[in-house]
């Protein structure tokens, strides 16, 4: 089976296109998009790839995906007022959801029935940097991390008039923990949040009827002290030639809910945590060397592979997942551009 994989290269201003066939990555070509192309999202219908340009003038691009070749064709673009660091959609592609780290807000953009941009934009102002925002699995809620004040907030999804009510719930993390990215359990009952400076995975229950959150546990994502890593520092406090510090980034969970993976950039590893089937609390199992400074990675929809990029790497790596242990094995790699950031993948497979 063949799937298409896309990788945004911020400094090259391109999106690399690949095919993945039985673990073998093949570079199909490069699509010129724009300097500092960063977060991306594939539409639920798999027809479009949305990409955010993180350089002025800030804007979003819509690229049509050719289902036979994986080629990308620019079909639309729209300006935005801020640089965006995450992109996602709801299940029906009615809303494109993004977060702004520098401008401290969440951006929700209504889409047309055909998946195109509209002229409207809903902005939700935060008190500090917002790292990511996701729709809940039932599409009723929006969940956003406030990195700068160590909080996570739950908002109702925009109503029919495009208005968003105040948050219905929040959770306060430890000071300077740096809540970054989010993964929902397949059942939608649990929410896993990776903290950038602590390198922990915080497990919360999520009540879909009310949007309420409740703390369950905090689990180390990596044995940082044993590996010689100090606790991380907020960006404003980092200094040159400092001691090695933990720098966690991305988090994903397999569709069967058994394994959680977290990327850590200082050591350039992806760690594997196994989720206890009774408590749903993850615990650290092992870690694996990957591309240098891995900011983004993705798990294939069939739970067979991880595709990992590195901001300081010149290749995209493919790793097979052992279904019993979660161990990763490097199976292939293909060239990429400079400043590789976000990995996206189609959810359909070609024979």
TrEMBL record:
| Domain of life where this protein originates | Bacteria
Q: Keywords of this protein's UniProt record, alphabetized?
A: Carbohydrate metabolism, Glucose metabolism
InterPro entries recorded for this chain?
A: Cycloisomerase_2 (IPR050282), Lactonase_7-beta_prop (IPR019405), Quino_amine_DH_bsu (IPR011044), WD40/YVTN_repeat-like_dom_sf (IPR015943)
Pfam families recorded: Lactonase
The record's family statement is: Belongs to the cycloisomerase 2 family.
This protein is called what?
6-phosphogluconolactonase
Q: Which organism is it from?
A: Vibrio diazotrophicus
């Amino acid at each position: 089976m063949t799937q298409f994989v896309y990788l945004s290269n911020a400094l090259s201003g391109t999106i690399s296109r690949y095919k993945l066939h039985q673990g073998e990555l093949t570079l199909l070509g490069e699509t010129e998009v724009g300097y500092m192309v960063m977060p991306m999202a594939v539409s639920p219908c798999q027809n479009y790839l949305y990409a955010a340009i993180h350089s002025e003038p800030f804007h979003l691009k819509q690229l049509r995906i050719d289902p036979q070749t994986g080629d990308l064709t620019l079909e639309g673009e729209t300006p935005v007022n801020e640089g965006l660091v995450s992109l996602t959609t709801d299940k029906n592609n009615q809303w494109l959801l993004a977060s702004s780290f520098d401008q401290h807000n969440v951006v929700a953009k209504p889409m047309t029935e055909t998946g195109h941009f509209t002229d409207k934009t809903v902005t939700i102002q935060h008190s500090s940097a917002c790292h990511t925002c996701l729709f809940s699995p039932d599409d009723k809620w929006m969940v956003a991390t406030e990195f700068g004040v160590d909080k996570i907030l739950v908002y109702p999804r925009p109503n029919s008039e495009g208005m968003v009510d105040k948050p219905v719930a929040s959770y306060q993390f430890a000071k300077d923990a740096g809540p970054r990215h989010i993964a929902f359990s397949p059942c939608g009952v649990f929410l896993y949040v990776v903290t950038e400076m602590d390198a922990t995975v915080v497990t919360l229950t999520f009540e879909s009827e009310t949007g309420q959150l409740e703390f369950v546990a905090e689990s180390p994502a990596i044995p940082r002290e044993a590996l010689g890593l100090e606790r991380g520092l907020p960006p404003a406090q980092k200094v040159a030639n400092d001691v090695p510090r933990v720098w966690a980034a991305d988090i994903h969970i397999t569709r069967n809910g058994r394994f959680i993976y977290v990327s850590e950039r200082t050591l350039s590893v992806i760690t594997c945590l196994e989720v206890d089937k009774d408590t749903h609390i993850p615990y650290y199992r092992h870690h694996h060397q990957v591309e240098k400074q891995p900011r983004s990675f993705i798990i294939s929809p069939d739970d067979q592979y991880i595709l990992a990029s590195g901001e300081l790497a010149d290749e995209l790596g493919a790793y097979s997942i052992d279904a019993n242990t979660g161990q990763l094995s490097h199976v292939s790699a293909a060239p990429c551009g400079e400043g590789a950031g976000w990995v996206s993948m189609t959810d359909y497979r070609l024979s």
